[in-house]
Amino acid sequence: MKIYDDKHIKNVVFVGAHNSGKTTLAETMVFEAGLINRRGTVEAKNTVSDYHDIEHEKGNSIFATPLHTEWRNYKINIIDTPGLDDYIGEIISSIRVADTIVTVLNGQYGVEVGTEIIWNYIKEFHKPTVFVINQIDHPGLNFEKSFNSIKSLVGNKVVKIQYPVVIDGAQCIIDVLKMKMYRFSAEGGKPEKFPIPDDQKVTAVALHNELVEKAAENDEELMELFFEKGSLNEDEMRKGIKAGMLNYDLFPVFCMSALNDMGSGRLMGFIDNVAPAAIDLKPEVSAEGKNILPKTEAPPVLFVFKTVHQPNLGQVTFFKVKRGEVRINDKLVNTRNGETEVFNQLFIMDGKERNPISKLVVGDIGATLKLKHTETNDTLAAPGEEVSIKPIEYPQPRIRRAVSAMNTKDEEKLNDALKKIHSQDPTVEISFSNETRQLILACQGELHLATIDWLLRNVYGVEASFEKPRISFRETIQRPSASNYRHKKQSGGSGQFAEVHMKIEPWEEKMPEPEGFNIRGKEELDLPWGGKLVFYNCIVGGVIDQRYLPSVMKGIIEVMEKGPLTGSYIRDVRAMIYDGKMHSVDSNDISFKIAGAHAFKEAFLNAAPKLLEPALDLTVKVPEEMVGNVMTELQSRRSIIQGIESEDNYQVLKCIAPESELFGFSTELRSLTKGRATFSTDFNGYQPVPANIQENLTKSKELA
Q: Which residues touch 172 (CB under 8 Å, ≥6 apart)?
């Protein structure tokens, strides 16, 4: 394959709501460049980018797919992304390595929910962005409504480069940068060029002047030229538009019909001549705080942004060259783990097709096979280069399920499959809860979960079940309580004897030492599950030998590991051992452990035991007009709303919510807000369970 230099490589990512036409646009651009002989369609399941079996079955993009096209001596790397936010990890990683974002809108609807969600991530990355209003030849097109919806989204920084018109039954596009009209046949393809018709001149000139002003605003030299001449030529406008895109102050709008190949060539020309390349962007800043300058004549640095496991191929690793160049047989070091990787093969990937290439230069995107120690977010660099590129930050999971293999013989197979799925998609998180003894799968939503289930069944051959995870409750006490227990066992020969008297109290930070006891020793234990046990030796007169007290404490901890109410961990208790008895022959460690456990359990049950539940800090970002319904839903889930903040046209609700009440919240929130609200959670602590719920939980344990 032809090798392009860093000035002639452009990396774009197609983003947008579901069914906006991203995959069709990618297919059209590859066809228009002559890289394929026939355009595929999503319906026919033969497009370059949607090549996975699951995408054919579901009829939509699920994975971000790199491919490329070539246009007038430029190479355009395209990443086609899904439109559903359940697959947001694919979108975010693609935005991270793109140099320009192409946001595709369905011309019937304009900015949709999916567009809004993705826009929030584009803003975080501060990447140059082009908007494309698609389907201009659809009977339901509403171009002005679509354009105004972009304006509502991004503000007055949006500017029309093109707008559609129909003249004598033919679809046309007026281009106010070139001040030309493009007229398309019904079959699309290469248009005829005409001067702008008289009835469109007033509109086109007004838009052209607006574009000139916005272009001039982004460069002092251009501003001076504008004041001097009253206008700018096309090259000067391109320079100003590019500067505005880099400054995040100008968002050009194009229009087209991707399905009928109207306008794709003009968009590719704009990407070639105006859209920034990797070398135009601000340098990547490493985790060490150093600029990674995109120079060819420097030791190579690669950033891994995507990993794919293909059944017959193994691991495919996708990367962007951030500095230098990489060649076949190069040896680079993974700066996360120090392992050396050998690049035996290099490819440009077009969907599932692998195109071998001898080297890749700075700014380019490529792939290799069978790296042994490298995952998504890793940095690969020349030996001796201590540099780590900041990892992609993915959103928190929104739903959690306990997952297990239908056939217990497949548990190991399930674990291996889930590891591969996580490697491909870091928004899928896998953990094992030692407390509930469940394997927990966390992901972005019900569609995401259905995709994981499909992959397990059809790719990895594992039937899995998904259930509501058990909640990790805690138990504690609310008042002091005293008890004693005598353990006595005689069965011939040496027996067992121990008697323990203890008092327990709720423990709190900075509370005074217990009164009325002769404290001879104190041990504070930070419990592995949170909270404390404070153990006091208050024995007087040697009624219990010092050597038996650790056994008493072991007995207490044994009960605390499986509390009497629900079998949950006990926390935040202090215990004073103040009396007891022992026998010179029959007393031993096991006897005092048993006596300590029974005494503690009896005291615990008489100390107004209380069940605690995990509470989460819940932040919900909701469109202003939908706040009321969401607040009602939150309150029905026992959430406490602590504050409300405004952010653009959204309200941000800050809440504390019981974890047990958030099962199904993601789905309900999506339903209430038509998918426009987002939320995040973070662990807050433990809070008391209401009495009626505690009663039901303890009853269910008794029945079990």
A: 164, 165, 166, 181, 182, 183, 184
